Amino acid sequence: MARKVLVLGEVRDGSLRNVSFEAVAAGKTASEGGEVVGVLIGDSVSALANEMIHYGADRVVTVEDEKLKQYTPDGFSQALMAVIDSESPEGLIFGHTALGKDLAPKIAAKLESGLISDVTSLEEAGGNLVFTRPIYSGKAFEKKIVTDGLLFATIRPNNIAPLEKDESRSGDVASVAAEIKDLRTIIKEIVRKASEGVDLSEAKVIIAGGRGVKSEEGFEPLKELASVLNGAVGASRGACDADYCDYSLQIGQTGKVVTPDLYIACGISGAIQHLAGMSNSKVIVAINKDPEANIFKVADYGIVGDLFEVVPLLTEEFKKLKVNA
Amino acid sequence: MNIYVLMKRTFDTEEKITISGGKINEDGAEFIINPYDEYAIEEAIQVRDANGGEVTVVSVGTEEAEKQLRTALAMGADKAVLINTEDDLEDGDQYTTAKILSEYLKDKDADLIIAGNVAIDGGSGQVGPRVAEILGISYVTTITKLDINGSSATVVRDVEGDSEVIETSLPLLVTAQQGLNEPRYPSLPGIMKAKKKPLDELELDDLDLDEDDVEAKTKTIEIYLPPKKEAGKVLEGELEDQVKELVKLLHTEAKVV
Ligand SMILES: Cc1cc2nc3c(=O)[nH]c(=O)nc-3n(C[C@H](O)[C@H](O)[C@H](O)COP(=O)(O)OP(=O)(O)OC[C@H]3O[C@@H](n4cnc5c(N)ncnc54)[C@H](O)[C@@H]3O)c2cc1C
Ligand SMILES: Cc1cc2nc3c(=O)[nH]c(=O)nc-3n(C[C@H](O)[C@H](O)[C@H](O)COP(=O)(O)OP(=O)(O)OC[C@H]3O[C@@H](n4cnc5c(N)ncnc54)[C@H](O)[C@@H]3O)c2cc1C
């Protein structure tokens, strides 16, 4: 059944996050041949509209207002509801990011609709759109369908492949007026802790350090390896608790959930709560001096050894590979 | 202050998970208070102790959730309410749960409602914000700090590792993130006292709700375990050679770099 699907693009530091393009691809599948309409909300976002079209949106609707410079649930829901009122979509796709997680349930409650959160794949099967999502901290999966009303889902970053970028695609970009008022939560300050560079939840390569890294300086070789692979640095709670790094790097049940193509765990034992955040990574490499460490059970490749020897050697080898490529 | 905590009884996901008859096998499994809801209960107790008032812990579930509600009372909550859906409902989703909770809360004049940011089993993170929206109050999710001053509140919100300092006012719903506090263990006197604290049980009827009013909008059609990973390859030989081989494998076999 062809349907019109709205896809919320997400802007950070003036550019679109990757998950926006993955959401467009999900929107395309969900539209079953219908229309995919990108939605951009912010103080100045229309310049980014064409990029959503290059990635597969048929057209884009923007809502711009200086009160939308920062995300607030009231501001963004007022903007989005204005778009929903004018477009009457049959589907909605957001990223399962801090923003999407915060906003989607509010919109679902306003529309009295269902919402399938944290989706890692979707497909048409037997006349239904079937959404797959991890449950029980990633130890099991469930397939869900919508039985009544709007098709509404948030998608986990890094799981649904974006469509090929095609800069020759073009489409209509229009703005929708919305009255943004009575914001009940006011952001006084934003303290940036997440490291500059590659976004951990969207990184294709993650080099993670645990208590085995032993100190703040111990993270340096990991950072070098990450920069050679254009990846991000992550950590176990063990490393965060020991103050070797900031909690913003924590991966696991109570930290970030990541699914990169390559996850290299250095000096991490592989506690169940850590695995909850990374076990769905495509390829896992473990570097640990203890051959009995649990992390080897989920690793595709393992090296038993001292990370301070192995990691610098790896960095050198990857450098060679990059030069030859 | 009139404080409510939303609490879910969850499967302890540290346990081994198996499936039987298309469902997660619950026989002999450990059930716990959802860990994020422990932060919520602790925070509620601290806010009450600083500002006066009462903490009521509410759960939608079956009779079995009484155990976790008693634990919450033993930690220091004043009252507990179980909304028992066992006889009325077969299926439910987040729409169902949020609607039931909101119907219960709508005439309670709550100043503060605290939920967990996510349940470790269902994992959607929907229930808190949905309840706030239905009640028409504002919310802040994944909070790591809460300061209440009269009718205003300053909240620190974790946003993928960054922190936002947010000012807002009561009534308010917040959802707890790790780092908000250190939940206490129930003390022995606490456990004794909990036995005498009120634990009320309600059914949909008591909330003037019909099955149809809360009918789920989504449905689970299959539950499965991820394919078992084959044992990985632990490399051998001289360290330099292992590293060379690993890079080669990642490049040519796994094709991830
Ligand atoms: C409710 C709850 C939630 C939690 N949430 C999380 C979470 O989100 N994320 C998380 O990560 N943890 C979480 N934990 C903590 C988790 O249980 C573990 O304690 C933690 O993951 C351990 O961190 P680690 O692997 O770095 O440390 P350790 O378990 O101490 O392991 C260190 C490893 O480093 C190895 N090592 C030491 N030196 C070297 C060297 N020179 N070279 C190579 N290897 C070396 C050792 O062999 C060991 O295997 C949670 C716990 C609880 C109770
Ligand atoms: C009758 C009935 C049958 C159900 N059958 C199924 C089923 O077959 N399969 C299935 O997967 N799920 C079923 N559910 C549960 C439902 O799908 C969700 O698990 C539930 O709505 C909570 O969603 P979540 O686990 O994603 O929690 P989240 O939205 O992630 O929870 C966030 C926070 O909301 C609060 N919260 C969540 N649930 C409750 C609760 N029950 N009581 C009080 N506070 C809560 C807690 O503070 C929690 O930390 C059923 C629910 C009902 C009422």
Morphology of chain A: globular
The portion of residues forming beta strands of chain B comes to 25-35%
Residue windows where pLDDT falls under 50 for at least 5 positions of chain B: none
**What is the rounded Rg of chain B?**
22 Å
Describe the secondary-structure layout.
The complex is a heterodimer of chains A (325) and B (257).
Chain A: E1 5-8, E2 11-12, E3 15-16, H1 18-31, E4 36-42, H2 49-54, E5 59-64, H3 73-87, E6 91-95, H4 98-110, E7 116-119, E8 121-125, E9 128-135, E10 140-146, E11 151-155, E12 173-175, E13 186-191, E14 205-209, H5 220-228, E15 232-235, H6 237-241, E16 262-266, H7 272-278, E17 283-288, H8 295-298, E18 301-304, H9 307-324
Parallel strand pairs in A: 1-4, 1-6, 4-5, 5-12, 6-11, 7-11, 14-15, 14-16, 16-17, 17-18
Antiparallel strand pairs in A: 2-3, 8-9, 9-10
Chain B: E1 2-6, E2 9-11, E3 19-20, E4 23-24, E5 31-33, H1 35-51, E6 54-61, H2 66-75, E7 79-84, H3 94-105, E8 112-116, H4 127-135, E9 138-149, E10 152-159, E11 162-169, E12 172-176, H5 188-194, E13 199-202, E14 218-224, E15 233-234, H6 239-253
Parallel strand pairs in B: 1-6, 1-8, 6-7, 7-13, 8-12, 9-12
Antiparallel strand pairs in B: 2-5, 3-4, 9-10, 10-11
Helix pairs in contact in B: 2-5, 3-4
The structure holds flavin-adenine dinucleotide (2 copies).
Pfam families (chain B): ETF
Keywords (chain B): Electron transport, Transport
GO molecular function, one term (chain B): electron transfer activity
